[in-house]
């Protein structure tokens, strides 16, 4: 898997749940080391984290290491990107998507 930028960090279930409740705008990228489409979108996720670093937090969650979290958030396929605003899920993007898709979705919630 491509190394994450400094703006994107990997988190475990407990930290994720804390971030959901404390961060005004949070992007969560559910991924796995064996997931080729996850590697395809990784640069777009990193770009979001860098371009919006003053407006949101971007994290990745490894599905295989955090199965309870994936189940709790109803993750059925990878990649799945969730956007939380003030503790509530406001958007879900499933599968490969272009940077513009992520950007346009975020623009609706900034």
Describe this structure in words.
By secondary structure, the chain is α/β, with parallel strands linked by helices. The protein has a single domain, classed as Glutaredoxin (3-Layer(aba) Sandwich), CATH 3.40.30. Helix content is 37%, strand content 26%. It has 4 helices and 5 strands; from the N terminus they run βαβαβαββα. The protein has helices at residues 13-22, 36-51, 67-72, 99-107, and strands spanning 8-10, 25-31, 57-62, 80-85, 88-94. A 5-stranded mixed sheet has the order 1-3-2-4-5, with helices on both faces. The chain is globular. The N and C termini lie far apart (29 Å). The mean pLDDT is 94.
Put simply, the count of helices is 4
Count structural domains: 1
Q: What would the CATH topology be?
A: Glutaredoxin
Oligomeric state of the chains?
A: single chain
Major sheet, described briefly? 5 strands, mixed
Task: Please state how the strands of the largest beta sheet are arranged side by side.
Answer: 1-3-2-4-5
- The poorly predicted ranges are none
Radius of gyration using CA atoms only: 12 Å
Global shape = globular
Report the average pLDDT across residues: 94
Order of helical and strand elements: EHEHEHEEH
The fourth-level CATH homologous superfamily is: Glutaredoxin
Strand content: 25-35%
Distance between the termini: 29 Å
Question: Which CATH C-level class is it?
Answer: Alpha Beta
